[in-house]
Amino acid sequence: MADAKQRALDKIVSMSAEPRSLVTYWDQASEVLRSAVPHYTFPCWYTVDPASLLITSHYNPWMPELPPESLALEYYADDVNQIVDVARSPSGISTVHEATDGDPSASPRWQANIALGGDQELVAALRTRSGETWAALGLYRETGQRMFDASEKHFIQESAPHLAEGARRSLLFGEATDPEVPRAPGLIVLSRDWTIDSSTPGMEQWLHDLPDGDLDRGRLPAAVLSVAARAMRSIESNEPAEVAMARVLTRSGAWVVLHGAALQSGAEHRIAVIVEPAQPARITSLLMSAYGLTDRERDVTRLVLQGVSTAEIAEELVVSPHTVQQHLKSVFDKTGVRSRRDLVGKVFFAHYEPRLRDNEQRAAKDQPLRGGPAVAAPH
Predict the structure, then answer these.
(1) DSSP label at 379?
(2) pLDDT given at position 377
């Protein structure tokens, strides 16, 4: 990798470890990305629900509102370069020209891009090292510009896990600082001597529920100190910022996940620790309550949303393909659709487009963006 790209990657690694608002994070990542991979106008940044691989937000100041036809192409058209397909691919990256063997003229997606001034399209899934897709990236170039080359695609692949972690952390930061989010994650900032510098309003409740702590005597829970110490180690060793994580059983019997990251802005280094409930994917309970699906029908639907084939669903659930088809027939009856594609479209437009549109408005008002589906009445 060329020196310039290595410097850009180092910047992304550093900035992705520090919690900040998602819009701020995307703006800063865009600035770094432009120096390494030149592109038309502004990147299209998306957050994605890792449980369904459906879009939950879109950010592009040049296009504050994603055109409805773009979403229709994404979830109803038989086309290439769709986010769900890229997210499930081994490489996690695709261009529309590669996906069409160099002739994208038959692609409705490419035709829509041309109308907006773009010719080439590169889509990358932003997956963490553990394999969860939390976001996606779209880059474009005008007609007559050189193709995205191997070194540029390699740079994006190298950056993707860090961008995914940064997006995930920024969503958590937004939820922790958003007073309207019920049972929001908690955020605490510690100085180097482990005293509390600041915290969000709900963090005290989280700290009382974690084992081994005694706030009345000024003793923080061991899990908080552990992730904070691991994150601080990266500062003291001058190594790339480490994000420490731990899964802990609380006194009340619930599992939570702790994230510790070094804050390297300002004269003094500090540590941020975020606590979030380790709850199951929100899409599962939503599908059951909105459509009356059984546990197995819910599992089949979740995998269909991810673009998994019947044979692959059968293998994952350890049932026969015939059984999968029977479950699908029942799901179709309960949701009022006739095909897999219609099922994906119905779930997206009923429960994810409202979240995306709300996030577009929130981005315009500089409010925290939210992840996961919105609870809405089925229609």
Answers:
(1) -
(2) 47
